[in-house]
């Protein structure tokens, strides 16, 4: 499976009174990475919405391992797998760059809704998952 990665740097305003990244901000990092991942594979989230195909999050499971602080450089990795006939999971991790420490592990479950609000997996997403499943990462 191919792993997509995207680099970030924590900005001061993303931190709370404790000086760490607010828990809700992590979801922004994950969402931005999912959108960039899709774009890198030729899937335009906004164009799908114009076609009345809406990608939606059904569930977010986030395991916070350690906090990021202002100035930390980090990256988010992402893979997508089909989890049922009409659902797919984005498996995402956040790592601090200076030591590759795992800061967050997440699983975001989504589906697509057609113009009648019924769940389905559009052809572009199905093709994406098929092509991703064919690509293998060497095991350690």
The topology string of helices and strands comes to EHHEEEEEH
Secondary-structure content class: alpha+beta
What proportion of the residues is helical, as a percent range? 25-40%
Sheet with most strands? 6 strands, antiparallel
DSSP helix count? 3
Shape: elongated
Compute the gyration radius: what is it? 16 Å
Could you list the spans in which at least 5 consecutive residues all have pLDDT below 50?
135-140
Q: Layout of helices and strands, plus pairs?
A:
Elements: E1 4-9, H1 23-40, H2 45-50, E2 54-64, E3 73-82, E4 88-96, E5 101-113, E6 119-120, H3 123-134
Antiparallel strand pairs: 1-3, 2-5, 3-4, 4-5, 5-6
Organism: Cellvibrio zantedeschiae
InterPro entries: 4-hydroxybenzoyl-CoA_TE, HotDog_dom_sf, YbgC/YbaW
Keywords: Hydrolase
List key phrases describing it:
single chain, 140 residues, alpha+beta, six-stranded antiparallel sheet, 3 helices, 6 strands, disordered C terminus
Walk me through what this model shows.
This protein is α+β, with helices and mostly antiparallel strands and 140 residues long. Helix content is 26%, strand content 36%. The chain has helices at residues 23-40, 45-50, 123-134, and strands at residues 4-9, 54-64, 73-82, 88-96, 101-113, 119-120. Strand 5 and strand 6 form a beta hairpin.
């Amino acid at each position: 499976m191919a792993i997509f990665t995207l680099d970030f740097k924590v900005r001061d305003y993303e931190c709370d009174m404790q000086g760490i990244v607010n828990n809700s901000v992590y979801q922004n990092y994950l969402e931005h990475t999912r959108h960039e991942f899709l774009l890198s594979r030729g899937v335009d989230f906004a164009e799908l919405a114009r076609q009345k195909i809406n990608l939606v999050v059904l569930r977010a499971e986030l395991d916070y391992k350690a906090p990021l602080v202002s100035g930390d450089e980090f990256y988010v990795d992402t893979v997508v797998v089909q989890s049922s006939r009409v659902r797919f999971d984005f498996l995402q991790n956040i790592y601090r760059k200076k030591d590759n420490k795992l800061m967050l592990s997440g699983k975001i479950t989504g589906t697509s809704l057609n113009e009648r609000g019924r769940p389905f997996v559009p052809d572009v997403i199905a093709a994406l998952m098929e092509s991703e499943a064919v690509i293998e990462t060497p095991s350690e």
